[in-house]
């Protein structure tokens, strides 16, 4: 479908794909983020940009800022479209996904960017070819871990025994010290167990990384998030990875650890520009 570009056009960039892959598997145009224009290809050497023309009146910087601040329904719908489009592209091509609302004023600016960074894009394509991302979050039940620490720590049991022989005044201060010791032990247990889980999963992956934990407000949970791991694995290694995750879920649940995973995703993290 041919669509005429006007002086008031902007260009919404979804992602970058190796040109060679599009020659073998041409892009099937489908509706873009505005619901009117369609996705199309812009070949720039060995890199092809997947774009959609948009109207400046609807997607100017000022309009987007206003929508983000005052129109949650618009924001959610457009963000969902962006994500679903990247998933479709990822299922068919080696995709470097771009962030939501990556917009160029003209195709020439995009072309200069890609030509300047062509080596970086080539290396990224090599790194993520036939790969996908998975995310794993770990939540901990501190009360359950506290019980385990108090039950199995010889040092804490000895401290409790010593407190019983002290005067009431000394007991008060020593119990405060004991409480702090238990809390420190809980932190150490959580860190050590999360490291163990991450190490076991990383052995199955091409790359792995750790992201910032979400707050309870972001996660919508009452428990704190204690780990937010991201894993890049070969698509043909997916079954082994998921089997290991499920084994870890069963192994750690009685210790107070809840392991949740999501995927497969486009390579948002490992192909982040």
From TrEMBL:
Single GO BP term: gas vesicle organization
Name assigned to this protein: GvpL/GvpF family gas vesicle protein
Residues forming coiled coils: none
Source organism of this protein record: Sutcliffiella horikoshii
Location of the protein in the cell: Gas vesicle
Keyword tags: Gas vesicle
Signal peptide: none
InterPro entries (alphabetical): GvpL/GvpF
């Amino acid at each position: 479908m041919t669509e005429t570009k006007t002086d008031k056009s902007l260009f919404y960039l979804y992602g970058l794909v190796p040109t060679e892959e599009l020659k073998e598997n041409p892009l099937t145009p489908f509706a873009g983020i505005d619901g009117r224009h369609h996705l199309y290809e812009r070949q720039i050497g060995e890199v092809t940009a997947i774009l959609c023309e948009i109207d400046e009146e609807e997607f100017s910087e000022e309009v987007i800022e206003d929508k983000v601040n005052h129109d949650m329904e618009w924001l959610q719908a457009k963000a969902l479209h962006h994500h679903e489009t990247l998933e479709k592209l990822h299922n068919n091509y080696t995709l470097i996904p771009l962030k939501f609302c990556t917009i160029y004023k003209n195709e020439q600016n995009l072309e200069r960017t890609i030509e300047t960074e062509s080596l970086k894009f080539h290396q990224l394509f090599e790194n993520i070819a036939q790969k996908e991302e998975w995310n794993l979050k770990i939540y901990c039940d501190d009360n359950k871990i506290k019980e385990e620490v108090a039950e199995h720590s010889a040092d804490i049991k000895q401290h409790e025994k010593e407190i019983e022989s002290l005067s009431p005044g000394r007991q008060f201060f020593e119990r405060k010290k004991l409480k702090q010791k238990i809390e420190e032990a809980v932190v150490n247990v959580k860190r050590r167990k999360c490291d163990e889980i991450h190490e076991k999963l990383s052995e199955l992956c091409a790359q792995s990384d750790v992201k910032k934990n979400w707050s309870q407000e972001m996660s919508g949970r009452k428990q704190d998030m204690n780990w937010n791991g991201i894993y890049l694995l070969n698509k043909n290694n997916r079954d082994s990875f998921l089997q290991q995750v499920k084994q870890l879920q069963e192994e750690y649940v009685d210790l107070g650890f809840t392991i949740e995973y999501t995927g497969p995703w486009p390579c948002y993290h490992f192909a982040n520009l």
